[in-house]
Amino acid sequence: MREKVAKALETIRPYLQFDGGDIELLGVTNDGVVRVRLLGACGGCPFSQYTVQMNVEKRLKEEVPGVKKVEAIP
Fold it and tell me: What is the model's pTM?
């Protein structure tokens, strides 16, 4: 599943980079929890949690069967 998540994140990355940010995949648990770290401008943005849940999590759930949740780790 990690490879599929990494591939899906590559489709999200350009949008984050456009705003001066990026995303790092930290891991995927056996129960479908994806752990990421937002970098650059996205890391300190007050809307970062919104970005993770409404954009990253939504996209990953659509593209990768088995993803249950996305957690942003500081």
Answer: 0.91
